[in-house]
Amino acid sequence: MTQVVNFPNDIEKIKREASDWIARIERDELTTAEKAELNNWLVISPEHEKQLIRLSQLWDTMSEIGERSSIEEQSTRKLEKRTFFGHLFTQFTYKTAVLASLIIAIPFLFYLQTMLENTSKNGQYFTQIGEQKNIILTDGSEILLNTNSMVEVSYSREQRNITLLHGEANFGVAPDKSRPFTVKAGSGDIRALGTNFSVRLDGNLVNVLISHGTVRVRAKEKLNEVPKTDQTGYRSRNEVIVGAGNNVVFDDYEVESVERESDKSIAKKLYWRKGFLSFDDEPLSDVIAELSRYTNLNIVIADASIQSMKVGGFYPIDNLETVFTTLELNLGLKVKKMSGGNYYITNPNS
To answer: Cα(213)–Cα(224) distance, rounded to whole angstroms?
Structure first.
């Protein structure tokens, strides 16, 4: 005998949940927490968004009917004195008007479209060379992508996972104890414990700079070394828990270093978030290497004797040629522009 198993109707469940959200929005403006909850519900499945839009369109149509019925009710009150059916008709229009009053107190479709447009769903996001992009996630967390970078967002009911595929990104994490926020980079990952931090992937090296809060950094994602304590300062060869002001570097095998950074050093390293690069008496070779991340120009130090010359200052990312002007005016160097976007830096006195 064939055994028949009846599974719950998921579509009907989604429709009920969508109706509940419409009712909650009608009652009052959603709180910040409720908006995050709605966004989380929307990204679980494309069917959620589909049913919510479908129901909102249906309710908008009913709202128009209700408005027309409300006008008709006024004339009905006059008719009820003259016709036997006046009472029955009034009951009908009254119920319709009540239904309309319960339907949408705000232009729901506009509200929904705004929420969907202003939040980013699961998928890949990237920047071109020299470009930066701010991504607002469905829970209110933010990702600021630096030049030539790519992340993949994968949110679910239980997890908030981000994969840094290449480049650099800064993460501002919205607190949610029920759903861990994890950034995967290289062979390891970074677990946010309510924080703000940046991650830079350079070959097999991952550099994590924590500007606020606490993070757990793990060199190998699949190697679990459970800490005996959640306190800042726990460390093993594979895992470290550190707070704001620390810079962590790990490779494919272990945590290589944990260094305490001054507030000034952190601010300088994170100036890219404001659209600037900051240098403080750094070797010309390092400055050019950093500049090259933000441009398609091929910048060559043609004279080895000037590679260690010290360079300082603030430079806008969208106008890096100001660096060339500084090199010529302040350091007396010569920057020669060649065809094909090539720039050669030389010392005219050597």
So the answer is: 22
Per the CB < 8 A criterion, the answer to whether 158 and 182 are in contact is no
Element (H, E) at 278: strand 276-283
- The mean of the pLDDT values for the chain is 78
**Cα(34)–Cα(50) distance, integer angstroms:** 19
pTM (2 d.p.):
0.66
DSSP string, 158-176: S-EEEEEEEEEEEEEPPP-
CA distances, 108 to each of 45, 58, 61, 160, 261 (Å): 20, 11, 12, 28, 48
Task: In whole angstroms, give the CA distance from residue 248 to residue 107.
Answer: 48
First and final CA of the chain: distance in angstroms? 95
- pLDDT tens digits, residue range 11-70? 778 778 877 877 777 666 667 677 777 777 776 776 777 777 776 666 554 444 444 444
Pairing of strands 298-301, 246-250: unpaired
Q: Which of 216, 219, 214 is nearest to 238 (CA)?
A: 219
Would you say 327 and 333 are in contact if contact means Cβ atoms under 8 Å apart? yes
Residue type present at position 110: F
Tell me: the pLDDT tens digits for 309-324?
A: 999 888 889 888 888 8
Strand 188-202 and strand 298-301: pairing? unpaired
Question: How many residues appear in the chain?
Answer: 350
For the segment 204-210, the average pLDDT, to the nearest whole number, is: 95
The Cβ of residue 233 has, within 10 Å, a number of other Cβ atoms equal to: 12
Residue 346 to residue 350: CA distance in whole angstroms: 8
